[in-house]
Write a structure and sequence with these properties.
The complex is a heterodimer of chains A (254) and B (311). Chain A has 9 helices and 12 strands. Chain A is an alpha/beta fold and 254 residues long. In chain B, helix 3 packs antiparallel against helix 4, helix 5 runs antiparallel to helix 8 and helix 9 crosses helix 10. The longest helix of chain B is centred in the first third of the chain and has 32 residues. The chains are: A alpha/beta (254), B mainly alpha (311).
Chain lengths: 254, 311
């Protein structure tokens, strides 16, 4: 079981009276790409944010690479870890946000090298070399000195991906990475993600891009009202959904 | 339906559209009132300058007087040190206020309540008279005479600095709250601990919001230091008062003091402009922010302009 990259069992989460996750199970193997799909408010982004402990959970087990992320298990209680310990584990998990969240006061390259230098204590020279290589990889080598406000949405999101990769993560989380983009810019971001997937990066992707899910995902999970309704290969879930709710959702988005 | 007749093809008669140029609204009232005001200002300056009751030679004599310049140095020292205390402590108090730790939050609330809630003049006098309630301060093995430790300069610094910290903490808090929550999330996701995130990500962005009111506070502080005259802290006003109490040239010495206060606040304004430009990096499309100082001033003097154009 420890060979799993993400292992979620009976994960529960409330926001006040709203039951966001009602016992979710999810398994992601190394080098797998898993897409989470479902209507808004179904809990898919919440599940993603619980994986790197941006949200705390109320109960259940959530492990990344065999280790609990934000907690220490003692008896039958999960004790939340201190900020510093959580940070150490988060540093190994990359995350890409819907609204990019680049640091606007730093250039593209500075955005990419900030965490490797300050958090991982990489020597500046190594970090810059690695950062430049990553910007090259997402096709933005010549934009290294630009500030985020000088970049298009698609370019900003590609810098955000490079920033996450700079920490050499073992897992990448994508929270609707193309939802805030103009339609003509979606392709360039998906291309970068396809490249990552083919290089063997383990990825969990919350997305509305059914084409991407069909083409790239090894596994698709459909969520609704805080539970995973149905999961399987893209062909099974997207092609011949067994569940009525999956069917209803897909007929709206496809 | 009266507009219909203006949109007909006949309105522009035979002129080709390329020959037409647009003229912005002309504000004749602004031009006239500017001329009137300049005239009134000139009149006022003339009456003051030619007033027989003001001895301008005394103003000239004392402008660079050693005592006055010494007071000027004290005023600058007090301002810089009190603002340094205010900003440093203000950041700490603001971060405490926004902490999830209720102990820190309440300590911060109490601090602001106390030091913002009492007049700074009262605080200055209390610090100066601290020896009345605590003749000795420090732990029992290292006691010191309060009157030796709390000189009038130290009392002034404590009074001004702590009061300023209470105000600055609210300014810093507003700045921190103005930063998009997505920024802290991104920093968390990269594994940054809270202190590092605050220092490298949140505060640099909050600076854009913090600097203009802080410039305002610094200018206020330059003038508030004159309150320390009540505890004889040897600032600019104290020195001016000392001189006019012997030669009775009250207005002349207050003019001297006003000249220096104005000069200091003007320098502070220019400094603020450059600081604002420094922290605007990345927040405009072109990297640096807008037009230069001279252009901006000239732009604002041009009739018909409302507000500055810089970011």
């Amino acid at each position: 079981m420890t060979s799993l990259m993400v292992e979620a069992h009976a994960v529960r989460k409330h926001f006040g009276h709203f039951h966001a996750l009602k016992g979710v199970d999810l398994e992601v193997e190394p080098r797998q790409v898993v897409c989470l799909i479902g209507p808004s408010g179904s809990g898919k982004s919440t599940l993603l944010r619980c994986i790197n402990h941006l949200e705390n959970i109320d109960g259940g087990i959530l492990k990344v690479d065999g280790e609990l992320v934000g907690y220490r298990l003692h008896g039958d209680k999960l004790y939340e870890l201190k900020d510093r310990e959580v940070c150490k584990r988060r540093a190994e998990i990359g995350m890409v946000f819907q609204r990019f969240n680049l640091f606007p006061h730093l250039t593209a390259l500075e955005n990419v090298i900030e965490a490797p230098i300050r958090v991982k204590k990489e020597p500046k020279k190594t970090a810059i070399e690695h950062g430049r290589a990553l910007l090259e990889r997402v096709g933005l080598a010549e934009k290294a000195k630009n500030y985020p406000s000088q970049l298009s949405g698609g370019q900003q999101q590609r810098v955000a991906i490079a920033r996450a990769l700079a920490m050499r993560p073992k897992l990448m989380l994508f929270d609707e990475p193309t939802s805030a983009l103009d339609p003509e810019l979606v392709g360039e971001v998906l291309d970068v993600m396809r490249g990552l997937a083919s290089d063997g990066m383990t990825m969990v992707v919350v997305t509305h891009e059914m084409g991407f899910a069909r083409g790239v995902a090894d596994h698709v999970a459909f969520m609704d009202e805080g539970v995973i309704v149905e999961a399987g290969s893209p062909a099974e879930v997207l092609g011949s959904p067994k569940h009525e709710r999956t069917h209803a959702f897909l007929s709206k988005v496809l | 339906m009266s507009t219909a007749s203006h949109t007909g093809p006949g309105v522009f008669d035979a002129r080709p559209p390329e020959a037409l140029t647009a003229v912005p609204v002309r504000h004749w009232g602004q031009r006239v009132s500017a001329v009137v005001l300049i005239g009134l200002l000139g009149l006022f300056v003339w009456t003051v300058a030619s007033n027989k009751n003001i001895h301008w030679s005394i103003v000239g004599d004392y402008l660079f007087d050693g005592g006055i310049l010494g007071g000027l140095v004290t005023t600058v020292e007090l301002t810089l040190l009190a603002m340094a205390i205010g900003i440093a402590l203000g950041v700490v108090v603001a971060v405490m206020r926004l902490s999830t730790n209720p102990v820190l939050k309440w300590v911060s609330l109490g601090f602001v309540w106390l030091f913002r809630g009492t007049p700074v003049l009262v605080q200055l006098i209390i610090w100066f008279n601290l020896a009345v309630i605590f003749p000795h301060i420090g732990p029992s093995f290292f006691q010191a005479d309060t009157n030796v430790v709390i000189t009038s300069f130290v009392a002034a610094l404590l009074g001004l600095g702590l009061n300023e910290a209470a105000y600055m903490s609210e300014i810093v808090r507003a700045g921190i709250l103005s930063v998009d929550p997505g920024q802290t999330e991104a920093a968390h996701a990269l594994g940054m601990p809270r202190t590092l995130m605050m220092r490298r990500i949140v505060l640099p962005q909050a600076m854009r919001i913090i600097i203009p009111p802080t410039g305002n506070e610094t200018i206020t502080m330059l003038k508030t230091t004159s309150l320390v005259a009540v505890i004889a802290a040897n600032d600019l006003l104290t020195r001016a008062q000392a001189i006019y109490s012997s030669n009775y040239a009250i207005i002349e010495l207050l003019l001297v003091a006003s000249f220096w206060y104005l000069l200091l606040t003007s320098v502070a304004s220019v400094f603020q402009y450059f600081l604002e430009r420094r922290f605007a990096r990345g927040f405009t499309r072109h990297g640096t922010s807008g037009p230069g100082l001279a252009q901006r001033v000239l732009g604002n003097l041009r009739p018909g302009r409302v507000g500055g154009g810089g970011a």
